[in-house]
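hiii so my PI (J.) wants the whole complex modelled not just the main chain, which honestly fair. so below is everything: two entries, each one labled with what it is. i double checked the lines twice but i was tired so who knows lol
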Amino acid sequence: MRGLSVKRLFYGLGLAILNVAVIWCAIYLWGVQSYGLLALLLLGALALNALFIFPGGYPYRYLAPAAVFMILLVIYPIVYTVYVALTNYGTGNILTKEQVIQQFENRYVLDPDAGNYTFRVYENAHSDRIFLFTAPDGRLLLGRSGELEDVTGRDEADVIPPGYSELERRDVIRLSTELSALTFEYEEEYQLRMRSASAFALYIKQYSYDAGRDELVDLISGVVYKPVNGAFEAPDGTRLTPGFRIVVGLRNFQRLFGNPQITGPFVRVFLWTITWALLSVGTTFAVGLFLALLLNDPHLRFRRLYRSLLILPYAVPAFISALIWQGLYHTEFGVINRALEFLFDTRVPWLQDPFYAKVALVILNLWLGFPYMMIVCLGALQSINSEMYEAALVDGATTWQQFRYVTLPLLMVSVAPLLVSSFSFNFNNFSVIYLLTRGRPPIPGAQTPAGHTDILISYTYRLAFESGRGVDYGLASAVTLIIFLITGTITFINFRFTGALEDVRENV
Amino acid sequence: MYRRHTFLSGLWRHLVLLLFVAFALFPLLWVLSASFNPANTLVGQKLIPTSPSLDNYRELFTSKQHPVALWIRNSVVISIITSALVVSMTALAAYAFSRFRFKGRRTGLFFSLLVQVFPQMLAAVAIYLLVLNIGKLVPALGINTHAGLIMVYLGGAMGVNAWLMKGYFDTIPNSLEESAMMDGATPFQAFWMIILPLARPILAVIFLLQFIGTYSEFILASILITSSEKYTLAVGLQMFIQDQYASRWGVFSAASVLGALPIVVLFLLLQKYLVSGLTAGAVKG
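here's the output for the full assembly
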């Protein structure tokens, strides 16, 4: 009984802490209007509470930790990717509409016909500051914590409270960054702000937002801006920056398939992704199988030694290998070009030329991947019954015929699904591409950062994080969804093929 | 299929194999040699360095600007913590899938299989924005924190690991736990004191696969970690060598050798176990 109550206490305490944290987060999320995450958080918290309060929730308690992380960091990002793909999220459209309106309403411009307000600054021991302004018309204004008071005609000693002393010129200059952030409310829509190190001036509020009519009015020119496609737009078509984030439906996909400057490079990237994945699987499998056939020979001497040495490239982390190979491919000093120069008196622009960059990638990936295929094929070869070969020999089959009609079909039964997953893996093999070529050389004339060796995943990475012309999360997410669709379909077919789904059904 | 060969056909096989061994080993030997070459440059490097020294290795531990030893430590610490947490979480989940019968069990299993279809790195943009927002709420889990990166890695804990482990748990007979529960053990005690000790081999395999995977992970770390002293080796090494091959080749090589060593040793020692896990569907990065 004692154990039970300790357990209860433990659960109770844990849930209490959890709930306090959840409420704290919920208040924050409500404040920043992140309603999607808020709903997820509350549902999750409710579910966790239920699991630990009701005895029927017992089995689910074991699943809770893994499920929490999976929902937050795999499933939520996928859903969020779908959402972002339907928005214009990116440089120029980062903020929400409310934030953009707030930004415009805080924008003040120098009043064109206002003169300079000279000023003196007084400071006390606590670094509280008060200002004395002399207006162009000679009035004297006292500035204090953002407010102004007309003190014309009064004596300086009378206005400045005791304990304050005037700052010297050079101190004012030293403080100028700090001072230039200060604003004093003059009257409605007018503010006094620092203009230069020696003077303040009147600034007029430029924009005012009319919530009822959903318009932004330029108070100086009178132009009325209306929200059109994620930015405020004047009747003559001028658009104000920054714009804001809105749902744009399928427009990102339309850009991908309808804008020649984006579509052209995208199609090239897409075709190279497929070619790359096929070449990777093809070359590694061919070499891996060939070596496996050689090594499977029981009469071969040093079999184990060969196997251990040939496996080494696979044991090195791929990111290190890719960077090493970049050094080997170095055009001027790389060992490969030095050898070519010595033998054939020629150099190859491995990483600068679109064609050779692709060749370089395929060779690197062959080096990285053939040991895996070799291991897989060796395993599969050993499981082929030797009686099959005896039967083939009796029928008079040649070595080639044995391979073609006995070895290969039987091997494929177990290896084919692995070839398909290898295809999906290479389809998304970001690190090899990125660490060897970074997608370079660039495709000329592309509106988005696309290179000759970019595959879809590295293309999205560059769209989202590396473009010189700003980031485009919306378009990057749209491409991501296309990748999801393709890898998803391939994997699904593979599951059907291997019966993994049937496994789930029977296994339960 | 295989007959005893004549001398010539045997020689032919060995020549072909030696050619591939050379292909496999040359880049590694070349880097090993560069790491001992004090010239620290690609220019004029020879396979056998003329005056070998440990200067490049010393640089890894002393350079303030490029703290490679620190990056390796970061990578190792992050990988150990991630793997330990992944193994614990997966073991709990797999135990439930293997031993309890509850509503949604089938769906849960199916789901963990389905999730693998979507590699986490594909949602990198969304993960970046999510971590950015989490960081505003809990700075310790935000951008440029190791805890935040580990948290992201934990998202991929379910999936193939849960399947591998559940399969192993299924092979452990139920009778052991039943007799323990007869003696008054709770299901959790049965899991902790009976199942876990028996499942040690699969726990080790998943720990190591996860360790190697995390150690080699590049894309998420490069997005989420932004300051030099917090880089993992993958991010730091890439930043260090980018467009600097001519002038940093030696130190880079030493860093590669030192950084690859733990993984290569682990891999070769545990080949037998790892290969079975790898061929079951996991693909090493």
